[in-house]
């Protein structure tokens, strides 16, 4: 599973930076969830593959640069270590995060994101 998990992480990141939403959808189970910390427009848990894709689209709509630092794998799961940056006239986002993906049958069943700067995220995603 380790090689497959690594490849899935690479493909997920590539689809994210190119906006290939159908590719992301194909990597998710129908009942996939995604949980983000904070108290802003992208925080909380969404349920369902379509909701996960909508959240990814919303995040990307803020003009983020998703720099992949590492794809990390465990025996059965994977995580993306990212450095996300973006700028608006009134706010700057500069955060490190890890997005942990729990896998089931070679696809993503659950995503949980851990952030280095929750207050910064709250200020940016208004």
Automatic annotation (TrEMBL):
It comes from the Bacteria. SUPFAM superfamilies: NTF2-like. Residues 10-110 form the SnoaL-like domain. Keywords: Isomerase. This is Ketosteroid isomerase. Transmembrane segments: none annotated. GO terms for molecular function: isomerase activity.
């Amino acid at each position: 599973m380790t090689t497959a998990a690594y490849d899935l992480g690479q493909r997920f990141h590539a689809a994210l930076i190119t906006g290939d939403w159908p590719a992301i959808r194909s990597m998710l189970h129908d009942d996939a969830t995604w949980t983000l910390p904070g108290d802003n427009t992208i925080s909380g848990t969404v349920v369902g593959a379509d909701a996960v894709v909508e959240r990814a689209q919303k995040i990307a709509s803020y003009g983020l640069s998703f720099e992949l630092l590492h794809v990390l794998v465990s025996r059965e799961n994977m995580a993306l270590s990212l450095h996300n940056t973006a700028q608006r006239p009134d706010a700057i986002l500069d955060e490190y995060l890890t997005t942990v993906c729990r896998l089931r049958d070679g696809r993503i069943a659950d995503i949980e994101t851990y952030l280095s700067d929750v207050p910064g995220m709250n200020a940016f995603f208004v």
